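Why does residue order matter? Because the sequence determines the fold. Keep that principle in mind as you read this record.
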Amino acid sequence: MTLRILIAEPDAFSQEALQALRRMASVDCRRLDQAGMRDALANYDVVWIRLALEVRERDLPPVPRCRVLVTATTGTDHVDSASLDRVGITLLSLRGRREFLEGITATAELALCLVLSLVRHVPFAFDDVRAGRWDRDSFLGRQLSGLTAGIVGYGRLGRMMGHYLLALGMEVLAFDLIAGEMQAGVKRSESLESLLAASDVVTVHVSLNETSEGLFSSRA
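Structure:
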């Protein structure tokens, strides 16, 4: 029986990867909506998604043909992995692919972009200018140099952020539930509370799991 693969979120999918897959299987590339997930799992050996689709217990057919679900993401909270295990579907993701991910800086760059946008009020000033006004004094920002940044979650992305924020002249603190070595110039915070109390800017780079859920309470 021919191996069947569905690329269910095909936008910007690597053509090189697509050619490699087509050398070993019959590959369909079509955008799937959530309602079609059940049929996809019933009719394909491999289903490839990203973040637009979820896979929950309700999406599983009684007898799925699918044996591998691929999500090209590091986070997997959009997938019910326990239900997949129950019906024998293997989940593949980018989590733990450290060597590959070290070269992917886009997420950390976006986080830095958001920090700069908020500190300098860029979205709000943009809307004001677009409406035909030029009220500079209403959108005065602050320079980051000399301020303190707190990084919560000092893994791959947190380390990248530390590098960027140090380059901007900030004092950088980091807090992580898992002890690890700090890069030069980054100071370890012993608690989330002490980091929040000392920081002008806080960035969060923590995967959602049972340990981290609720880490940022209303009090925090």
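The mean pLDDT is 93.
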